Amino acid sequence: MEKIISICNLTKDYGEGRGVFDFSFDVKRGEVVGLVGTNGSGKTTTIRNMMGFIKPRNGKITINGYDSWKDAFEIKKSVGYIPGQIDFPDVGTGTNFLKIQADFWGIKDLTYMNELIDIFKLDTDAGLKRMSKGMKQKTAIVAAFMSEPDILILDEPSTGLDPMMRDKLIELILRQKKKGKTVFLSSHIFKELEDTCDRVVFIHNGKMINTVGRSQYDANMDKQYKIGFAEKKEYQQFLQGGYKILTKNDDYKHLTIAVNDKEMNGLFRSLKPHNIRYINYQPYTLEWYYTNIVEKQEV
Ligand SMILES: Nc1ncnc2c1ncn2[C@@H]1O[C@H](COP(=O)(O)OP(=O)(O)OP(=O)(O)O)[C@@H](O)[C@H]1O
Fold it and tell me: What CATH number is given to the structural domain containing 274?
């Protein structure tokens, strides 16, 4: 598949270890890719470089063949963007702002814009200055999606949305994915990334530390099971059974093992003679990968 976004050795150094350092990744046409990291890890800096708002110290970003810095206007003309910090121009109401946006995109037929306004139950007559955080976010969502652009770059797009509106946003992203659009989004919410992304890039202290694909967190054949034993002797016997032990607790007689789906019958056979208190399935979630990978970083 064709690369539509390419970030190559991006460095934006704000000093004292702040910024983004030698960051590289690609997004293929039609992919939905997420960016996750702690506060201050460099997500907004990466996205603002992608949109051509700031000039990288080193490296190159191309989006749909345009250079993010040199062709910043073309980028803004062709990408649907939700900023991390929404700061509307002084144009009165939401309606005025959305009309200006429609003109910018060259949209004559406002049917789809009005459909989005309905989906998000947005009162566009409200003054932009008086809008709540959630209303501002919904206005920015409508503005970014109304032209159905081929590429969407969304910086924490669900900020300030209530759970129902967050679900609407996820539906909207998935609808765009079905239409073959490319979406790049940052988020702190693992569930949102799991629900939408084909791949998620982990950023930590301005550096890319890993990429986790859907197959790893959605349908991983390796599973974890937490097993509690009634008797210490049995717990100790099982420990010697050759299973891959991830965690163990001698006092509470429980352990966590990693088992492949193909080894399940064998596992049940080895458990049969024991007095088991409980067995819990613990899926490999995106959060699990994140915690395990990021917390081990000493960068
Ligand atoms: N204009 C700037 N001048 C100096 N430092 C900056 C500037 N912009 C960002 N930084 C610093 O760069 C680092 C990365 O900031 P960035 O906003 O990209 O993080 P983030 O991952 O988006 O964080 P959050 O999740 O809190 O939104 C932070 O330490 C931030 O303080």
Answer: 3.30.70
